[in-house]
Amino acid sequence: DVQQDACLVPGPLSPSLSSAVAPVDITPSEQQELGYMPCRDDYEREYDNEAESLISQLSVGGPEEDELETALKLAQVDMYSRRLRERMRRKGLVRDYRLLEQFCHAGRPKASPVGARSKRNLREADRELQEKMRIFCQFQSAAEHEQLLENLEREKELKARIKELLRYRRNGITKLDECSEFDVARHRREKRKEVKKKSAPANSVHKKPISTASKKYEEKGGVDIILNEQGDTREDSKEATDITSLPGYELLSDKEKKLCQSMGISPACYITFKTVVLKDQAQRQKGSIAKFRSPAGLDKSHCRRILNHFANSGWISAN
Question: Which pLDDT does position 268 carry in this prediction?
């Protein structure tokens, strides 16, 4: 009855104020080596083990003690409380992140399910990020830190996806259904580049003649042309592909259809380049000069052929 009444009475030493400590998954021999006492959740040698020396010799309430001595002793008790809180904080981090188990199980072979293995492999790929973010473990719980790492990985994936969508947009792709066709065409184009680069000798590069209109237009800064790996060495006969089923084909004239067919570029890419050039021509007529970049995938020879077509059609001027 006395023990039951003691448990019901709240107080600074009441057993109801303390909660049971989660068991630690280490063997008794490992506990003995570490000096860990699991029932008390203490160690033979704690962090800041000499902290108790601040108050071990204190005695409060002596007959000759004045207010200054009392304030000094209370300050020592406060210093001890701060050091004790730091010790408890570190012990809490050890329990929360299960550092004892990780230290003792480091050399043990441990079988894990497939899901856990794939998750660990994912962490191996982002080891550098984990090392950089480890300093924030002391300010977060284990669950919060894990959520932070997952959010950072998700952010990285979203940025990569946004970059990919922007690349589609620069090439005139506005629908997700067209992305697969664009990727297939780009893969084929890259394969042709590799085959041509291996088969063609290094000294057999022949440049095509450049018309006066397109040359002057480029020199005036109308379009900032992006060169690909092949430069001017692409042959139109090898680039001919069927573009009749691609979106935007019906918007082209007969000459434009033949031009795109001979160069092997998509109608959407051609329309995007045409829009950029015509807008630039309109700005130049107003007196302002601005540079634009052609869509990725067009090499220099193709850009010049398109500019020649624009000049012959009277859409741009060579002056």
Answer: 84
| Per-residue pLDDT tens digits for 89-133 | 888 888 888 888 888 877 565 544 444 444 455 556 678 888 888
Question: Tell me: the pLDDT tens digits for 264-276?
Answer: 888 888 888 888 8
What is the amino acid identity at position 114?
V
- In this prediction the pTM is 0.43
The Cα 77–Cα 83 span in angstroms is: 10
Q: Pairing state of beta strands 223-224 and 292-293?
A: parallel
